[in-house]
């Protein structure tokens, strides 16, 4: 698992903006409780934003290296391993085996084929070999899986929507069924009776306070936004270069306003309106409380974004390298590349032995070892 996010909180933070959101006084002891909390939250947010950016760049770089160095070899490895299945199949025609030995060979061949079919679309030759050893043909198995999936959707939508389910209609227009499902579930939630309890005085006071804080925050954010619009509006700028710059910054202002990104708005206000951080020291406690509430929410959202970064399905192929530092991860990806190349060479050597005449002994030894490997893998996966 990745290291704790705040192990590096004391490290300097690089930020694209020149203005850091920090309330400064001659001595830290002169800071009020709210000023200290404001500084802690803005530092935490800057750290999170920087960390998300650097981790994103790292993971995308690792993914690029993996796709270039390892992914093509994994398909080659699966196809190469299929040669063993061919050799085992040919060996059973040239040698006599007991029923138990034949069953073990069957298990190994099916296992090799299953791994191959997960990586590539099987050829007719590969399907034919699989069909000789499987209780059910490849095409029948695919058809069976599709039918099971259809039955699942049919039972699910029929029970929820109280109507017959048409799989063709669903495949042509899945959005329609998704919308109807939302409407149905939403309607049921509205109809479900809820027990209304009388709220206590404390609850009412808390709700009133939260509402007042929310209104104050909205008002404060809008006030900063309107100030920035007046200063940055491109139409009021005669200089072409500055106008283009302000057009880009206005996009950032609008995005930040729509997302309630108080941190970015405050930085832009300092850069383009106040030109200094001194005005932060003059903020009243009431205003600071509003900002602190918004900053807490923003920090919480960034923490969640950072956490979800490591659970993004996009990065699943490099999951074993995610917790490593970039240089170490790249070295391990290159190491895996070498291991797969070596494994492909070993497969060629194994096939050469299995394809020799009178190779019954080698076939039995290989099948026993491979079957033991399959059983160990199953045990580890289900432990």
Query: DSSP helix count?
Result: 14
Overall mean confidence score, pLDDT: 80
Sheet bearing the most strands, described?
Answer: none
Uncertain ranges: 9-19
Strand content: under 5%
Order of helices and strands, N to C? HHHHHHHHHHHHHH
C-alpha-based Rg, rounded: 32 Å
Measured as a percent range, the helix fraction is: over 70%
Gross geometry? elongated
What is the chains' assembly state? single chain
Instruction: Output the structural class.
Output: mainly alpha
Q: What's the end-to-end separation, in Å?
A: 19 Å
Total beta strand runs? 0
Give a verbal description of the structure.
This protein is mainly α and 383 residues long. It has helices spanning 33-69, 71-94, 99-119, 124-133, 138-161, 167-172, 174-191, 201-232, 240-258, 262-274, 278-281, 285-309, 326-354, 360-381. The longest helix has 37 residues, at 33-69. It is elongated. The two termini are 19 Å apart. 17% of the residues are buried. Mean pLDDT is 80; it is low at 9-19.
């Amino acid at each position: 698992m990745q290291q704790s996010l705040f192990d590096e909180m004391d490290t300097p933070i690089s930020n694209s903006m020149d203005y850091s959101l920090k309330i400064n006084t001659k001595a830290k002891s002169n800071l009020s409780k709210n000023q200290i909390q404001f500084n802690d939250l803005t530092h935490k947010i800057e750290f999170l934003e920087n960390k998300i950016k650097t981790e994103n760049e790292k993971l995308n770089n690792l993914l690029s290296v993996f796709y270039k160095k390892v992914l093509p070899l994994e398909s080659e490895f699966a196809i190469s391993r299929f040669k063993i299945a061919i050799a085992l199949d040919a060996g059973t025609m040239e040698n006599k085996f007991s029923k138990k030995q034949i069953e073990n060979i069957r298990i190994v061949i099916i296992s090799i084929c299953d791994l191959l079919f997960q990586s590539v679309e099987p050829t007719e030759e590969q399907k034919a070999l699989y069909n000789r050893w499987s209780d059910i043909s490849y095409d029948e198995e695919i058809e069976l899986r599709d039918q099971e999936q259809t039955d699942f959707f049919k039972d699910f939508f029929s029970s929820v929507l109280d109507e017959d389910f048409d799989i063709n209609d669903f495949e042509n227009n899945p959005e329609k069924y998704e919308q109807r499902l939302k409407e149905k579930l939403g309607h049921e939630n509205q109809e479900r009776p809820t027990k209304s309890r009388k709220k206590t005085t404390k609850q009412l006071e808390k709700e009133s306070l939260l509402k007042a804080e929310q209104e104050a925050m909205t008002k404060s954010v809008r006030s900063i936004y309107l100030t920035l619009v007046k200063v940055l509006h491109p139409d009021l700028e005669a200089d072409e270069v500055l106008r283009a710059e302000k057009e880009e910054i206005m996009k950032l202002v609008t995005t930040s306003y729509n997302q309630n990104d108080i941190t970015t708005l405050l930085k832009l206000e300092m850069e383009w309106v106040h030109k200094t951080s001194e005005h932060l020291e003059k903020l009243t406690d009431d205003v600071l409380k509003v900002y602190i509430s918004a900053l807490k929410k923003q920090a919480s959202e960034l923490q969640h974004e950072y956490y979800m970064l490591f659970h993004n399905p996009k990065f699943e192929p490099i999951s074993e390298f995610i917790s490593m530092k970039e240089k170490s991860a790249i070295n391990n990806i290159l190491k895996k590349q070498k291991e797969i190349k070596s494994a492909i060479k070993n497969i060629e050597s194994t096939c050469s032995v299995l394809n020799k005449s009178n190779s019954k002994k080698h076939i039995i030894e290989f099948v026993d070892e491979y079957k033991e490997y399959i059983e160990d893998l199953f045990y580890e996966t289900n432990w």
